[in-house]
């Protein structure tokens, strides 16, 4: 994987199309989407200009006009794209190819990082069973590539892998690799796989740890790749399943009902200049290896260092080289999960925010297609929209404050009989507000209408009445959660701009509530902000308070809303009443049911609950296998002493029993032991017995 350059690119380095007759750029769709968005934005800006220019326009009113135009353009583009998706779905204009045979080899790759082994290995086993059921299983291998840094989880992964191999027999075709250091995180994990084993496979299907894909879906992706010699990446549309908390079920419902409209519109106007979301997609391995070696960006994080949101960049580079990237939005059988609470999604969002803003360093890279730059801009605007919205609110408050408390300026440079006041056209303002809300909510309405029109889908969502009630519930609580996310994302943008880096903590995937004290700690500032904003708005003008009431209510209720978001009982209560239902929830996909059953079986084995060192000590065969899977280590130079290894060795020598070692060794020292064959030998020689943590060491 040669490292690519963002500063130089020669068009001659790109490949020629193998099937140019099949390569059609959807110009009409793009003219409609972008031309329509531009026209709507121009109209909105024109109306806003007349709203604020009743009399002499002040500086703050011009600022308000600019901020409104920026925010309006963002929702206008989503609106026109959703119209395109709505029409395509209504008239069934999008159809994915079917698959009957395969001739090439594909690998299914699941990168994992400190995940539950029962969950991830059950998912791989279920995916493999589903592919085998298609009769084309011989064309697929499976790799679990681990970047795990928790020593106990690492040993649990090896135990689960060996148990799964034994379960499946000699034709398992499932492989496992643990990487000593998670260099460049997920992008580095995939790159390590590609450079070591990628040459064996024409294509790779990349998953996330929470991914599930049916055999039919994967086979159809592989067939589509084989049939299209110009395809570099083909992306599926994952639906959210297996969610039970209130917030996660809101997301699950929204993704199922509204998501296809948005995704279909995006797929149509993007055409072969599409994007990649990092998982549940198939990639041509050699094209990826040739063109997706990511360079480090100059400087320190958050804008420098390794590329955080690598998927957008990989799509950009593979497209620059002449390969196509596109989505099959109607391809069924692709699933994922979502964070269970508002705090969990905010934690994930912080990392995504940094990754997308980092793209400001890449959007001007040489040779990128215009549509690729649009994808980068869209990703950045997804997070910049929050501070723009917040600034628009602040400017609105300042203008009302100016009207109510500023002294009128009677004697200006130009003689006037009346003072200069900021004035508005209230009728036009109300009409513009209605237009803005209509454009904002239209994609949701399109998705709801399509679901109501489809009898089978409508019944699977609980029937027409429950479906409408669910949509109203989702819209209401989205409005409540929106100002909280606005403040959180604005804070994230500010932190990134001042140079604060984010970590890479494993995502919490299980349903469950967060302790109330943590919720209060995370949202007390939001509640205080809502209180101050509400009191200030009310003191300035009751009309301002009414205008800001949705934002004020959301912030004031941040703590109870966040508590409710992760509440499992509330989510299950709504489920029992048929609200926020999705077809996959009422009638779970067979692969999801199978994965859940396998997860219960694997959980009973207790791999996730065991101490890794004690397990290796008690099982010589496991220890021998663990050592056999370790990479060869370069011999150290004399005099170079690694502190963690020296401490781990001293503790193992000092330990009288395995219990002593288990108690004394810290996580970093445990990882050193697990990577070192000599230290594993010391561990193996320790006798069983109780801990002697308080005993004095013998003198020699």
UniProtKB/TrEMBL annotation:
Membrane topology: Multi-pass membrane protein
Localization per record: Cell inner membrane
UniProt keyword Cell membrane present: yes
InterPro entries in the record: Glyco_trans_2-like, Glycosyltr_2/OpgH_subfam, Nucleotide-diphossugar_trans
Keywords assigned: Cell inner membrane, Cell membrane, Glycosyltransferase, Membrane, Transferase, Transmembrane, Transmembrane helix
Residue stretches making up the Glycosyltransferase 2-like domain: 205-406
SUPFAM superfamilies (alphabetical): Nucleotide-diphospho-sugar transferases (SSF53448)
Transmembrane segments: 27-46, 58-91, 380-401, 432-453, 465-488, 527-546, 552-574
Any Pfam family matching the protein: Glyco_trans_2_3
Pathway linked to the protein: Glycan metabolism; osmoregulated periplasmic glucan (OPG) biosynthesis
Keyword Zinc: no
Family membership: Belongs to the glycosyltransferase 2 family. OpgH subfamily.
Name of this chain's protein: Glucans biosynthesis glucosyltransferase H
Protein's gene: mdoH
